[in-house]
Known about the structure:
By secondary structure, the chain is an alpha/beta fold.
Amino acid sequence: MNILVGYATAHESTKGIAKAIGETLTRAGLDAEVRPMDEIYTLDAYDAVVLGSAIHGGSWLPEAASFVEVRAAQLAARPVWLFSVSSVGETSSVFGPKVAGFMRRMRTETKEIAGFRKLFRPRDHRSFAGAIERAHWNLAGDLFLKAFGGSYGDHRDWVDIATWADGIARELRAPGRAVSATAQDLHAG
C-alpha cells in the first residue's frame, strides 16, 4: 500500500512531523512517501493520504488549502487523514498547562478543515504543537507569548505523533477495512 504524507511548512516544524509520521508508517510495513505539497502533482500512485499544514493566523497555509481544494475529488476516493501544527496541540503546547487547557477548550476547527469535511470525509484531524523560535514571531506575537507564559523551543510531542501514525497504520493494515470504508462512503453519499 502506497501512502502519501504531504505537508506545507513555514519554518520546518510541520516537515519534521510529516517525516516522523512517514517513518512510523514505514516501520509498520507500509510504503510511505513524504513530500512537500508544492512538489505533488498527482495522487494516482497513492492508496491513502496524510496531509498536514502549519497554522498561521488561525488558518492552514494558503498553498496547503489550495492543494486540498484542487484535489478534493481525488481525496474523496481514498482514505485521508489531516493534521495541523500550531502553538497548541492535543498533548503539548508552547504555553503552560492552564493557558493551553483554556485554549484547547476555546479552539474551534479552522475554516479550512470545516470546508474540507464538506468536500470529502477525512478519517481524522489531529492538532500538534510545533517548534518555534523568537525569529518566527513578530513583536506582538512575542509579547503575547510572554504575557501568557509561553516559551520558545521544540514543543512537538513525538510520542503523540507516533501514536497517531500507528493508529493510521493499524487502520490501513486491517484487511479490507480502509479501502472498503471509502468505497462505502462514496456509494452512501
